[in-house]
Amino acid sequence: MRRPIVLSATMAGILIVAGCAPGPDETVDRAFQDVNVIDETDLSDIMLTVADPDEAVNYFKRTIKSNPDRLDVRRGLAVSYTRGQRYTEAVPAWKKVVEHPGSNPGDSVQYADNLIRSGDWATAETVLDTIPPTFETFDRYRLEAMVADSNKEWKKADSFYEIAVGLTTKPANVMNNWGYSKLSRGDIKEAERLFGEAIREDPTLFTAKNNLVLARGTQRDYTLPVIPMDQIERAQLLHTLGLAAIKQGDVSQGKALLKDSIDTHPQYFEPAVRALEALEQTTTTG
């Protein structure tokens, strides 16, 4: 007589559990919802890193239509515009990000960066002024230095450049910018030093190499510095020296350097050829 009672109790327990558990359809729906969330997050990450920037822009624009208030989607669109160097479109996209109640100072830094890239220095300065002084990042001070440079506020620029260099493990580009700032002020020796440091930090940074050669050329030093360079870079740097010599009035020296650059380049070096031809025509006409 005890067995049926136990069995009935067991069945009652199963029925109670079954009554509390979701139905098969509901379980499947919830499972698919979870998968969609995971897939969407992964897809957004892909779009922000390895995807083609234009494809990423289209993805985030489509997503915004159904999620207009989501900050991460708006930020993804703004980042994608920046990645694609579509700065005119990036500026209003970042503006909307900054206006969102959940935005942070880093978003304002990105907004200012894109404003500078699009040529709106005044608005960029206004945006940077809204960022709390406690928000200290490399990008923030890099931009502060550039704005101070544009305003010819040299002491502020030097201070911001120095802070920026101390906040990154890859200071080559900011050292190059700092060096160019020094060069524009006429502090050539300090510019040379900063270009040299930039090259030591990143031996592949051709802009710093070219700027270093330009600084030497302004002092009528037409010899190439001892720095890492391949054959194409050597030809390009000789071309820069040649133009610097011509600008200084050392025309014969400039012609010789242009000829060297043409001979050094492993392919046809059209800019140097055009410069030499123009110079020879001018000389003949004169």
From TrEMBL:
An example Pfam family from this entry, by short name, is: TPR_16
Could you tell me which residues the TPR repeats occupy?
Answer: 172-205
The answer to whether the entry has keyword Cell membrane is no
The record, for InterPro entries, names: TPR-like_helical_dom_sf, TPR_rpt
Which UniProt keywords are given for this protein, alphabetically ordered?
TPR repeat
Gene3D superfamilies per the UniProt record, alphabetical? Tetratricopeptide repeat domain
What's the protein name? Tetratricopeptide repeat protein
Q: Which organism is it from?
A: Roseobacter ponti
